[in-house]
Amino acid sequence: MKTKWEILQPDSRSVARLSQRLKCHPITAAVLINRRIDSTDAAVKFLNPSLKHLRPPFTLQDMDAAVRRIGAAIINHERILIFGDYDVDGVTATALLLEFLHAIGADVSYYIPHRIKEGYGLQPHHILEHAHPHHTRLIITVDCGSSSHEAVEAARRLGIDVIITDHHKISANIPPARAVINPQRDDCRAGLENLSGVGVAFALLICLRKHLRDLNFWRDAGEPNLKNLCDLVALGTIADMVPLVDENRIFSRTGLELIYSGHRPGISALLEAAGIADKAADSDDVAFRLAPRLNAAGRVDHASAAVQLLTAQDPAAAGQIAQALNRMNSQRQDLEKKILDDIQATLQTQPERLQKKTLVLWHPQWHEGILGIVASRIVEQYFRPVVLIAAKRETGKGSARSIPGVDLYEALVACDGHLTRFGGHSLAAGLTLPTENLARFAAAFDNAVDQLVPPPQLVPTIAIDREIDFSAISARLIDELESLSPFGAGNPEPLFMARNVVVVSSRIVGQNHRRMILRQISGGEASAVNAIHFNVNTRHPLKESFDRIAFRLRWNRWKDKKTAQIIIVEA
Question: Cα separation of 91 and 302, whole Å?
């Protein structure tokens, strides 16, 4: 699919001023301004993220009621149940609260539903069949609960209090829980809308620790160091693809340092299983190596294995769980390939489906635990909202993914009459519907997106931070660009453009990656640089020159050496 290249044009005077004040490369200053970081103070905080820069989370709606109730449960030795979601965000949030509450002697356990057998979120049967028989007095949800009205009512009738912590979209009709901490609430003015589920749970711990301090709870023991939990917060935050700005940037940078330090046996074992134990982990490692393995547990088996890994104290036991997750991830990859093959076969025989603004597909044999990953792949390939549904018997369960500028949740609200339930974000959601409604839902969803999308065709756009010559590449510049990490949603890795590039030499490495030496003649000076282009089509003749390339600029580290390298994104 062709893409539109948008070359950003930051104000030249602002670039010069920021470059002078920070004493940084003008290209780095331009990237910062492209990220709307245009003051010296904002840039210094961005480049040096610290926990001391966190905004106080005490203003989150219902926070005071939540910490008072949890504090009472701890002091009175009431039985507490943490109820979490089965994705990485939910699993890390579960492990976070579990570790903190265990450390201070609370009577606490956790429950994560089986993705296939039970589905998403807190439901009445969880109250009746698990919480009540185990004499639970307080339930704390993490990364879920904002739509669990019936379950909260069931708990209330049985004298069980519920505290909801979540970050998903929430309607004005809030469940009647003891507290509902969700920065997406219309009446929440904390300004923390970008937090992940584990970020909201961490905010709860900050306030709970302060509340217990006010009660003189820590007089006989030192307060827990919350910084030691930031590796869990970083995992969930990066994996959930929330914007890596403000608090999320602080959590991610702090947590990545902890991950690399070998602080947690379970994460160290997972790094080893993923084959990246000998390098400093970055956001890509979390997103593409660690998160898929943690998610695999909930997708093909049960997410409790991921919680067990993250809370494991024994390295040998952690290693065994990590290897099991590795095997589950391989199984997940096989299932994913089967669904992708089915979809490609369908689109080859029914190309008219690509004339619509959306793709809604279903199959009775698809594994519902894999659909979210596959939907993301199809979005990348065809750049339009996608809904994939496992349509078994009378009920279909599906995952939806969208593109920037198309609010998926808003589109699903417009289709509410065809759905049994749904929930999620603007870019990702889950849904359930009767199979008899599939065709009607597909038509309604396409119509809803058609109303949301502006008249121009759906065309992916890549934002180019700066057009540069190879002669501008230096060790100083690459070091400064690295300081802008971690990269992800809200803080994309800088992308540059160069023109008139020729291939000096090249070879194929792996199956279809092209390693090259490129040269650009600019102003009479010849500058050559190492480059790699991933996933090239080797069935067609390879180009020996490019009118323009879009690329990222990184260090290529090998053992104790590092060399400058560009990673070609498009050419």
Answer: 11
